[in-house]
Design a protein that fits this description.
Pfam families: Pyr_redox_2 (PF07992), Pyr_redox_dim (PF02852). One of its GO terms (cellular component) is cytosol. Belongs to the class-I pyridine nucleotide-disulfide oxidoreductase family. Its cofactor is FAD. One of its GO terms (molecular function) is flavin adenine dinucleotide binding. There is one protein chain. The longest helix has 25 residues. The radius of gyration is 24 Å and the shape is globular. The protein folds into 3 domains: 174 residues, FAD/NAD(P)-binding domain, CATH 3.50.50.60; 114 residues, FAD/NAD(P)-binding domain; 111 residues, FAD/NAD-linked reductase, C-terminal dimerisation domain (Enolase-like, domain 1). The chain is an alpha/beta fold. The strands form 5 sheets. Strands 1, 2, 3, 4, 5, 6 and 16 form a 7-stranded mixed beta sheet that branches. Strands 17-18-21-20-19-22 form a 6-stranded antiparallel beta sheet, with helices on both faces. The chain has a 4-stranded parallel beta sheet with strand order 10-9-8-14, with helices on one face. Helices cover 29% and strands 24% of the residues. It has 12 helices and 22 strands.
Length: 467
């Protein structure tokens, strides 16, 4: 059978766009269909606008800190509308860049909602991005699902009264009192944004510490940093009800406590975006959480149909989706073997103030591979010896396999942690040892030099039992 396209990508986020561009570069006939935003979640409702807002939230503190360095600056008032307008302008610019990149690569752009008719046929219908677009049916030899994920709301009374991260980027005004439910990346990052801009923030999460899945020492350090930021934490709590009277929202917690706010924000996870894709017209298998099941090569259970990025609910990070898309396009259309990515050492960052970054294994995870040496340091960075923020600490941790001395994990909380960690991620990916770190000369005076001057082992962690 002759198909209109060699590759049809459903979803123009970072992963889908990379897959399409690489495939087109190999000579494939490629189309991309997008229903809502060119650039996907990361560009429009995720990492990019969120980091701009994090940066905005830090300027007030920088003004205050400047006084200790001799400046007579005065902290003014923040104009939320100006920030949102500036953010929107930048996102519009990036949307245009994504469209331009695709067009220059010779890719056919289809605007609308994609729905499978069968395994190689897709119907593209009207969507928010193109409400008046005439429906069109296209066929493709290979189809890639890259539709990402969408926020989840808890199943409690009044959940519809709360916002999620999607709405947070377009609030007309900054709420003075915010209750944020969720102790993961999104909850912490927005808690820091609102607190830094002057809001009273209550952060509710179910675990004893925030950031489930991160190293325990770093989770404890982050909990301290959250308090230093002026945020009230409610650990080991869940929301059980949200009500509204007048302009005031009330969140009832499962311990009976009530919190009043001008805005309630659920950061309680995300789910793969598969609704209305018509997967029932295919043999694509879906997991209990809605994730599309794929093998190591991103192949679904339907031959010729693939899935990449958050819709598979594996490592839900933009650079991972990009790598998956690139790898898939090389494998389908390239002449040389595709490059290898080290997904096991995918670095990650939480853009709080101060931020935290991590690569490799936690102490607990590493102990399953044998006895572990831990190197740990906590200090006041140079800037804050003058600023007076003595409680704004930098924390660093290296997790080293005792038998091989290989650095299995590196974790940093502090100013510029993500910028430092990216280089360390190369070392961990390369399998370098603690001795390699030790023989590297540091850059002085920096916080980063602590990573190569950690000479004294803090403790030894025994191997975890097989049970």
């Amino acid at each position: 059978m002759t198909h209109e396209f060699d590759l049809l990508v459903i979803g123009a986020g970072s992963g889908g766009v990379r897959c399409a561009r690489i495939a087109a570069g190999h000579g494939a006939r490629v189309a991309v269909v997008e229903s809502r935003h060119w650039g996907g979640t990361c560009v429009n409702l995720g990492c990019v606008p969120k980091k701009l807002m994090v940066q905005a939230s830090e300027y007030g503190d920088l003004v205050d800190d400047s006084h200790a360095f001799g400046w007579s600056s005065t902290r003014g008032t923040h104009d939320w509308a100006t920030l949102i307008a500036a953010k929107d302008k930048e996102i519009t610019r990036l949307n245009g860049i994504y469209v331009s990149m695709l067009e220059k690569a010779g890719i056919t752009l289809l605007t609308g909602h994609a729905r499978f008719v069968d395994a190689h046929t897709v119907r593209v219908e009207a969507s928010p991005l193109a409400p008046h677009e005439a429906p069109r049916t296209v066929t493709a030899k290979n189809i890639v699902i890259a539709t990402g994920s969408t926020p989840l709301r808890p199943d409690i009374p009044g959940a519809e009264l709360a916002i999620t991260s999607d709405e947070a980027f377009h609030l007309p005004d900054r709420p003075q009192r915010v209750v944020i439910v969720g102790g993961g990346y999104i909850g912490l990052e927005f808690a820091g944004i609102f607190a830094g801009l002057g809001s009273q923030v209550d952060l509710v999460y179910r675990q004893a510490l925030p950031l489930r899945g991160f190293d325990e020492d770093m989770r404890a350090a982050m909990a301290e940093a959250i308090t230093v930021r002026g945020i009230t934490q409610h650990p080991r709590c869940s929301s059980s009800r949200v009500t509204k009277e007048g302009e005031t929202y009330t969140v009832t917690l499962d311990n009976g406590q009530t919190l009043e706010a001008d805005c309630v924000f659920f950061a309680t996870g995300r789910k793969p975006k598969i609704e209305k894709l018509g997967l029932d017209k295919t043999s694509i298998a879906v997991g209990d959480l809605g994730q599309i099941k794929v093998d190591a090569n991103s192949q679904t259970t339907e031959p010729g149909v693939y899935a990449i990025g958050d819709v598979t609910d594996r490592i839900n990070l933009t650079p991972v989706a990009i790598a998956e898309g690139h790898n898939l396009a090389d494998r389908l259309f390239g002449k040389a073997p595709p490059r290898e990515w080290s997904f096991d050492t995918t670095p990650k960052a939480v853009f709080f103030s101060p931020p935290m970054a991590s690569v490799g294994l936690t102490e607990t995870e590493a102990a399953h591979h044998g006895v572990v040496d831990i190197y740990f340091t906590r200090f006041t960075p140079m800037r804050h010896t003058l600023s007076g923020r003595k409680d704004r600490k930098t924390v660093m941790k290296l997790v080293v396999q005792q038998s091989s001395q290989k650095v299995m994990g590196a974790h940093i909380l502090g100013d510029d942690a993500p910028e430092m960690l990216q280089g360390v991620a190369v070392a961990v990916t390369a399998g370098l040892t603690k001795q390699d770190f030790d023989r590297t000369i540091g850059i002085h005076p920096t916080s980063a030099e602590e990573l190569v001057t950690l000479r004294t082992r803090t403790r030894e962690t025994p191997a975890a039992s097989a049970s």
